[in-house]
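Our collaborator T.R. sent over the components below with a one-line note: 'Predict the complex.' Nothing else. No constraints on interfaces, no templates requested, no preferences about which chain binds where. So this is a plain run: every listed entity goes in together, and whatever single assembly comes back becomes the starting point for the next discussion.
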Amino acid sequence: MAMGFQCSIGGVFNAGGAKLDLMPAIVLYAALTGSWQQTMGTAVVAALLLDTPSFALLGLSVPPFLVMGLAISHFQKVLYRDHAIVQCGFAAAISLANSLWTWLVLQLTASPLPMTIGVVAKILVIAALAAAVAPPLFWALDLMRRWRRYDPVEAETF
Amino acid sequence: MLQRRYLVALGLIILSLLLYFAMPAGPSLTLKMFATRIFSPVLRLGTALRASWDGARHELQSRGVMLEENRQLREKLALQMQEGLRAQELEDENRRLREMVGFRKASPTRLCAARVIGRDTSSWWKTVFIDAGSDQGVQPNRAVITPAGLVGKTVSATRTSACVLLIVDPNCKVAALVENTRDPGIVEGAFTGLGGDAVCRLDFINRDAKIAGGSTVITSGLGGVFPKGIRVGSLEQAPVSESGLYKSARVRPSADMERLEEVFVILN
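Returned assembly:
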């Protein structure tokens, strides 16, 4: 659904060539909420979905999503997932990692992308958009999760 | 457990790198088109919602705006009718002249109208998806146009949809020539930064060519994908020689790449 929305909105909303990307926030949600297996599954599926309706070859986005997802998942217990700053910051970080990886791979192709001020600004705006969309997406996904089932309360010992 | 986690991750990363770097374009494209076919209904739903929203917004326009639009459309219609008559006259004359010099009658161009149903999810590539596929006769490597000019070419097609690579994408190369001087060159897209307009470049122009800014660029017909004579755009400035070997200049495409809604695929 997110991919379909992203693909359709590309023609309507376009901040100076920077498009809205929901996938970093979805990977972050899995990394902060689910197990490492779920994080890996979500990262791979989200990356493949992102590459499907794009001219990018299949599999381009898998490494950044996977590495960032697993790194965040590793520190899941010490991160306050409900805090908007955490959500925005890490969604921006995943988006930045993806853009930088794309840039790096493009340097190896026949049409390299020069790192101009405009390109840096575009990468930052893509990251800012990914950050901005994270809190509402977390809220919507939490709502859907609660709608499906309530998590059992676990007793914790300090 | 920790080790297993990172081993699986490492395996997946290596697999994805292999998928990206080692997989031939054919199977990768097949996989992508299969996935696109699955998501095609979602893309169509998005387009339908957008059309409904545009329709509702149009309904709510004030009477003054509608009257003004109506006046402009009437003016345009009158102009178009005149243009149509002139074109008809020219076509008749052309036909007569062709018959006189014994030219083979040019085969009529078959067009397939299509709506844009989605855009590239990435901010770095410039492709669109259209709602016409192999069922309508659309195959890869077919020129895609609008009344304003060239849009791009199809790179893949499923039964009901196709992916169009726009001329402003760096991967799209078009053999072109400057209309008034007939100097040939290659039009290719360029990666743009934030706020960068969707423009392309006309490269490999003869360094001795005398071309003025604003000249029209058309397809040259070389390469076999784009028929000759389709308007590509106009030169933003006179070409300059940066390398000393050849000249190049920015080309502003005639078709508005940011607002593509309906396009035509040239089937033959």
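Summary for T.R.: Chain A touches chain B through 55 residues (CB under 8 Å).
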